[in-house]
Amino acid sequence: MTFTLTQALHDGAIQFMHQDSAGVKLCVFQNQHYRWLQIGDIVQTIMDLSQPSKPLLPYLHPVLLTLYLRPDIRHITELGLGGGALQRYFNAQAYALLSIELNDTIIECFESYFAPPNPGTVIHTDAQRYLQRPELTDWLIVDLFDHQGSHQHITESGFLQACKDALNDNGVLTLNWLPAHPLQTEYLLDQLQRLFGTEPRLFAVPGYRNKVISVSECALPRLTYQSGLCDFAKAHQLDLNVFQVLS
């Protein structure tokens, strides 16, 4: 990454603003180079206007390296659309992505300001309701937030079991997690290891609260430095310097 959020997001003009019943503002900003979605004080997505599919926010890089660890993935589902960064990325990579999003204003922003040509399917529904009768998937990405951080039900055993049940055999579950306290991450890792029977892979993003966790019943290999990894990262516009491998 060659920029900081401060450098990237200065002097942005508001393109869209919505305030919900709780007084939380959802805004789309744009400057000469970037367009971004902000909910409250949290930047949900940034899009490079010259390269819309390029992953910019650092947490996306360890998320997307799941395709290196499990190259047989074909069917992908995300819980939480945000600004559609994964929709744009997978569209450019010729993967079909199914996105589940409850907030109709976020869907409106995506369709108006962030959607790629011929995007994947977006279903307007609650994630927990969707998980009651999901389409089985090879990879389930959980990216559920409000203006304060991760939804608390992400750590609930019933929710995690429903995520596991939504996976095909040897499917992968990936969580973008913003813990309020380090012990919450330890608790979540313990739950996932008990549920899947394998050690989760944990990544940190220096300078951010984000922790990225991936787990599968078919144990994911450790991410180790080698030429194949560097070649994959270069081909997929991923930066190996913006995250740390913790397990």
Please provide a brief summary of the model:
The chain has 247 residues and is an alpha/beta fold. Helix content is 28%, strand content 27%.
Looking at this protein, list some descriptive labels.
eight-stranded mixed beta sheet
Describe how the helices and strands are arranged.
Blueprint: H1 5-8, E1 13-19, E2 25-30, E3 34-39, E4 42-48, H2 60-64, H3 66-69, E5 76-79, H4 85-92, E6 97-101, H5 104-114, E7 122-124, H6 127-130, E8 137-142, H7 157-165, E9 167-177, H8 182-196, E10 201-204, E11 211-216, H9 227-235, E12 244-245
Parallel strand pairs: 5-6, 5-8, 6-7, 8-9
Antiparallel strand pairs: 1-2, 2-3, 3-4, 9-11, 10-11, 10-12
Helix content: 25-40%
| Gross geometry | globular
Strand order of the largest sheet: 7-6-5-8-9-11-10-12
- Biggest sheet statistics: 8 strands, mixed
User: Secondary-structure element sequence?
Assistant: HEEEEHHEHEHEHEHEHEEHE
Rg of Cα set: 17 Å
What would you note in describing this structure?
The chain has helices at 5-8, 60-64, 66-69, 85-92, 104-114, 127-130, 157-165, 182-196, 227-235, and strands at 13-19, 25-30, 34-39, 42-48, 76-79, 97-101, 122-124, 137-142, 167-177, 201-204, 211-216, 244-245. With 247 residues, the chain is an alpha/beta fold. The strands form 2 sheets. Strands 7-6-5-8-9-11-10-12 form an 8-stranded mixed sheet, sandwiched between helices. The protein has a 4-stranded antiparallel sheet with strand order 1-2-3-4, covered by helices on one side. α7 (157-165) links the parallel β8 (137-142) and β9. The longest helix has 15 residues, at 182-196. The chain is globular.
